[in-house]
Structure formats: C-alpha cells, structure tokens
Amino acid sequence: MPYALSFLLFVIGLYCAVVKKNMVKIVLGILIMECAVNLFLVMLGYRHEGVAPIVDRTHLESKAALDGFVSIAVDPLPQALVLTAIVISLGSLALMISICIRIYEKYGTFDITQIRRLRG
Amino acid sequence: MTIFYILLIFIVIASLIAVETTDLLSAVICVGAMGFGVSLLFLFLRAPDIAITQIVVEILGLIILIRATISRDLTFISGDKEFFATIVSVAIVFVIFLAGLRVFETLPEFGTPVFAERPDTASQTYIREGLAKTGAANVVASVILDYRAYDTLGEATVLFTSIIGATVILRRSAKRTIDTLRPVSPS
Description:
By secondary structure, chain A is mainly alpha-helical.
C-alpha cells in the first residue's frame, strides 16, 4: 500500500509534466517524479522495527551480536544510491531553471505554446 | 505504521495543490512542503543521511525556484485549457497507474526487504564487513565513499558539469563582437 501511494505521487508528477503548458510547472512535475522514485527505492529496503545501518561497538564483540544486527538493520544499499540521485537532481534542477530564465528573457513568457518564433 | 500513511497522504495532497494551483509562487512553496514531508518520511524510514541531504537540497532548490518565479511580471497562468486533450491525457495516465499497480503484487510485502532472506547479497556483506574493512561505523558512508567510490566521483562530475552548463547559459556577456575586441588605436 505505501508502494501504491508513492506510485500515485509519480503519476501526479507525470501528469504535471505532460499536460501543463507552463515551463516552471513542467520542472515541478519532474521534481515530484524524482522525489517519488527516491521514496520508492528507500521503501524497498525498509524493515519493520528496523534500525538505521550504523554499527555500534557492541555489535562487534561476538558473531551472534553481528548476526543479530544484520537481521534488524534496514538495507543500506538503496540509501547510498538514493543519496547520489538526490544530489544529481539538484544539479539538473539548476540547469532546467537557468534554461527557463533564459527563455523568459528572450520571449517574455513561460508558456510553451507561445514560444514559436525563431528569433536570431 | 500509521505515520507513513499520514505523511504520504500529506505529500500527495501537497503535490496535487502544487500541480493544480494557478499561482507559480504558491506552486513552488507547495513543492517545498512536499520535499520537507519526504525528508521527514526518510527519517521515519530509518535513513538519517538521506533526510539531512534532502533538507539541504530542498532549501537550495527552493532558493533556485523562487529566483526563477519571483519578480516576474506574469506569474499567474492564464489562457483557455484544451478540454479534450486534458481528458485524454488524464485517461492515459490513469491507465498507466492501474497497470503499474499490478507490478507491486510481485514485490514482497512492505517491511520485508529482499536482502533479508539471501545471505549472499551485497547489502548483507556491507553490513557485516563494513566497519572491519573500511573503518566507517555508518554503513551508508562506507558504501558511498569506499565500496562505490567511483559512483560518488561520477556524481561529483555530473554536478560540476551541470553547474558549468547553468553558468554558461546564464552568462550576460556571451555575445562579444569583433569590434569590441579590437584595441582602440591612439590617433
């Protein structure tokens, strides 16, 4: 059920990016989709009553303690990859918004249906 | 468990308002609310590193977005909507949603990750040997900075390239003709 809600969030972003005619709205739709995908990947690694994957000193004393920690920790691999994806989304956001600002300065509008003329 | 549903419904409502409002500044602020809700949800999903990163990225993204929308003379969206095209798009997106829901039946239940039943996965190896091999108590830090350090290097490259692109696009003195470059001869 939480998977379905995050997929609903993705679909809302997809609708915004496909239907809306304002460039800033399209950028916001892409942002919503990125958030939804990150949320889904982190949810895949969640475990009920789990703990954050930070090793304590007491976990290293015996093999049984380490096995117990492995059986309650959440998955660290999606978290590491999502960390990379979040930072990259910031870079792509800066690039998209700078393109939007440039087009606004040139054409005086954010509406993509009015940007037709090829002015040199 | 209920806190997940509360936060997820808050996020969905915030994104719906952001999509449907006609004021651009309100839409940007609603996306900010959605981002902070997502970071709170990351905290409850036992991912503190991602929660911190998401807050920092959200603040920077809000600053960038408000820079784009504020002090523009037309921030309101006007104009007639094409009714038929909107209906068709909504129908197609709804069909995609219904088809995608079938995929989640093949996944394990929420709260039972895949790596738990398989002792030979990479995640279990990272948790078991992360501290002994890399010396980092935080397993996420040992993955991004040691096991998959090339991934982080690629991330830094992508970030650097996108910032260079944004700087080049926003640069004022992009056009400089030959005449302005020629030195003025004293006469």
